[in-house]
Amino acid sequence: LLSDLRFPEDPRWHDGRLWFSDMHDGRVLALDDAGHAETIVTIDDEPSGLGWLPDGRLLFVSVHERKLLRLERDGRIALHADLSPVLPCNANDMVVDAQGRAYVGNFGFDLNGGETPKPTTMALVHPDGRVAVAAEDLAFPNGTVLTPDGRTLIVGETMAARLTAFDVAADGTLSNRRVWAQLEKAVPDGICLDAEGAVWVASPVSRSFLRVREGGAVLDRIEVETNAYACMLGGADRRTLFLCTAEQHDPAKTGTRRGRIEAVAVDVPGAGLP
């Protein structure tokens, strides 16, 4: 659908368009059915996870600054929350619930600098900007989804090759941590949920997108030419699986602009958030 991107990530279907971050280009874009991409916002940092407050304002993660930013209706960028007190390293993907609470993951270590992986935290940002620790001892919390009833959160732990689930309380706190699916020869990056309760998982190491059932059974597999980084079910009936692919995740190597947004029709529509 779209090429000449550096590193497309964090796709979201919102208001009839596919929104995503071209992280290494510092842009958030929205792609319509005709293939026209509009730049929504540009920042000096790398944008990552996207979501919306109940009043429609866009929230987006600023990776290196470890901030959650808000796009006001007049185009101004405002600080929504400073994540640095609870996130020790680069912030990344995020899901925003129906009440406007944001769950934000982070690398936990210097990925591109070759640092040894170590466990880290996930942040919970309340609608008024208050920040708390949502969960600890996670191995690179990455793509995250919420079930349609808002009662279960599933997060991909990239460095543990698993999807981990939590119960979500009325106040947004997480409990009852459990392994939802352990992956084999794959690692989770971006994920999305479908109406049968299965999760589509982007797996960079296997250059594939996997449809996974709770317990770990792989129901379907889509192989791509380069690396698979994120996915989202969208379109008018939410039966189009949008794929974010690229050759590299290292910003020093994405200047060739080989990133793409690809798409494939699937049988089961999307559900839940994002």
Verbal overview:
The structure is a single chain. This protein has 274 residues and is an all-beta fold. It has strands spanning 2-5, 8-14, 17-22, 27-31, 37-42, 47-52, 58-62, 67-71, 77-82, 91-96, 102-106, 120-125, 131-138, 141-146, 152-157, 162-168, 174-182, 191-193, 199-203, 208-212, 218-223, 227-234, 240-246, 259-265. It has a four-stranded antiparallel β-sheet with strand order 1-24-23-22, with no helix packed on it. Strands 2-3-4-5 form a four-stranded antiparallel β-sheet, with no helix packed on it. A hairpin with a 5-residue loop joins strand 12 and strand 13 (131-138). It is globular.
Number of helices: 0
Number of strands: 24
Strand content: over 45%
| Radius of gyration (Å) | 17 Å
Please outline the major beta sheet: 4 strands, antiparallel
